[in-house]
Amino acid sequence: MNEKISIIGAMNRHEPTTRDERAHHVAQMRANFGIEGIEPDEDDKRLQDAYIDGTATIEDLLEHAEKFAKKI
Q1: Using alpha carbons only, what angle is made at residue 7 by residues 42 and 5, rounded to the nearest 5 degrees?
Q2: Residue 1 in this model has a pLDDT that exceeds 50
């Protein structure tokens, strides 16, 4: 199973996640970016850190990703 789809599927169920789970999600996302040769900028990292801290939602991350995708 595609790990990215698995993570997004789990988060779309809106189940509560722990800080450790969110940190793991972000670490996997950053690793995937690295494989693709994409380096997150400071705004990306701030938003990802806010998600880990629980002050940003998965919807915030997805909205940010959609805006990025439209730029490229």
Answers
A1: 105
A2: no
